[in-house]
UniProtKB/TrEMBL annotation:
Keywords: Aminopeptidase, Hydrolase, Protease, Signal, Thiol protease
Listed name of the protein: Aminopeptidase
Domain spans labelled Peptidase C1A papain C-terminal: 32-113
Organism name: Aequorivita soesokkakensis
Active site per the UniProt annotation: 44, 305, 326
GO biological process: homocysteine catabolic process; proteolysis; response to toxic substance
GO CC annotation: cytoplasm
Record-linked PANTHER family: BLEOMYCIN HYDROLASE (PTHR10363:SF2)
InterPro entries linked to this entry: Papain-like_cys_pep_sf, Pept_cys_AS, Peptidase_C1A_C, Peptidase_C1B
Recorded family membership: Belongs to the peptidase C1 family.
Length: 372
């Protein structure tokens, strides 16, 4: 009888432990600009990457500058349209993109502050690109169908006209804090060097320590990624944060165990705990390189959303979490943690598609293997 009582006492203790509400302790918390909303747009790639660059400017110069997200969106759409038309409609066109699209745009077009180019017109307070995207898609389909049997050169100016009407005309110069700038001189003032940033991923369809084009839908511009083992990708994230560098993240947020309302993202060992694990601690699955690959290849891990990693936390059991800045606003009825989501280490290992970091944030052994 005593053995049975002891058994049930242990089982009861384990059950209580498994259901502990989350209590987080901050380990590393790097400076970032306030959380804002991308509104009704699919431009998380620009919002997150711009937030990443804002933190980089703080690190490099000490200046807190609110950069324009829509300036890079405005300058990226013509390239998407060109790609779609020149590939005769057999290419991705939509609102999605990746971090390197912002870096490429910054290198070509410079940077501007939000106050100089908001992408909103008088009376507008929320971004909503639904109509604009529908118009652009209809136009591009028409150009690809080529009803005139000879595609005119007017389509480029027509696309520019739509973007002017919905987002705004491009800038050549502006005033910021009493000084005149062009987008390129403003970029120079921020000390951002786009060539200093590298994209890392971890998949076994390509050799490790090589570069390859990651075939995901939003990689419309065929950007290359350095491929490293999963443990090294995670070590890079940790090394960056510990050394004062924030990290740009492309990830899967389609899982039921990702919740902006609860403010956590986890991978419970037992799927029966998926919902309960959003409010309390449950054992998590061990994520191996092989399991990560399997989930990617069967479409259970998909390229959904880009966010910005700014810190590290621990729960009361010592489990590591990552503080991840989202772009869905701060409405407390919809999001927790002031708009941040805490990713468990297991979730990050499984659901991080890629990361972008400054080259100086790489661990030395990884940088050497990549010849960086």
């Amino acid at each position: 009888m005593k053995h049975f009582l002891s058994f049930f006492a242990i089982l009861f203790t384990i059950t209580l432990t498994a259901q502990q509400p989350y209590k987080f302790t901050t380990i590393t918390d790097l400076e970032a600009t306030p959380v804002i909303s991308q509104g009704i747009t699919g431009t998380c790639w620009s919002f997150s990457s711009t937030s990443f660059l804002e933190s980089e400017i703080i690190r490099l110069t000490g200046k807190k500058i609110d950069l324009s997200e829509m300036y890079q969106v405005r300058n990226t759409y013509p390239l998407k349209a060109e790609n779609y038309i020149m590939r005769q409609g057999r290419a991705q066109f939509g609102e999605g993109g990746l971090a390197h699209d912002v870096m490429n745009s910054v290198e070509r077009n410079g940077l501007v502050p939000e106050e100089a180019f908001s992408g909103l017109f008088v009376g507008e307070t929320v971004y909503n690109h639904a109509e604009m995207v529908a118009v652009l898609e209809a136009m591009l389909k028409t150009y690809v169908d080529n009803p005139g049997r000879k595609l005119s050169k007017k389509w480029r100016s027509a696309i520019e006209g739509v973007l002017d009407a919905y987002i705004g005309k491009n800038l050549t110069n502006f005033t910021f804090e009493g000084k005149q700038y062009t987008p390129q001189t403003f970029l120079a003032m921020t000390k951002i060097q786009p060539a200093d940033y590298v994209n890392l991923t971890s998949f076994t369809q390509a050799p490790f320590y090589s570069q390859f084009i990651l075939n995901i839908p939003d990689n419309w511009s065929n950007g290359s990624f350095y491929n490293v083992p999963l443990d090294e990708m995670m070590a890079t994230i940790d090394n960056a944060l510990e050394k004062g560098f924030t990290v740009e993240l492309d990830c899967d947020v389609s899982e039921k165990t990702f919740s902006s309302k609860d403010g956590v993202a986890v991978i419970p060992e037992n799927a029966e705990n998926n919902v309960k694990a959003l409010q309390g601690i449950y054992p998590e699955k061990k994520i191996t390189q092989e399991y990560r690959q399997e989930e990617f290849e069967n479409y259970d891990t998909t390229d959904d959303h880009l966010m910005h990693i700014t810190g590290i936390l621990q729960d009361q059991n010592g489990t590591k979490y990552y503080k991840v800045k989202n772009s869905w606003g701060t409405d407390e009825t919809r999001v927790a943690n002031g708009g941040y989501i805490y990713f468990s280490e297991a979730y990050m290992r499984l659901k991080a598609i890629s990361v972008t970091v400054h080259k100086d944030a790489l661990p030395k052994n990884t940088a050497t293997k990549l010849n960086l």
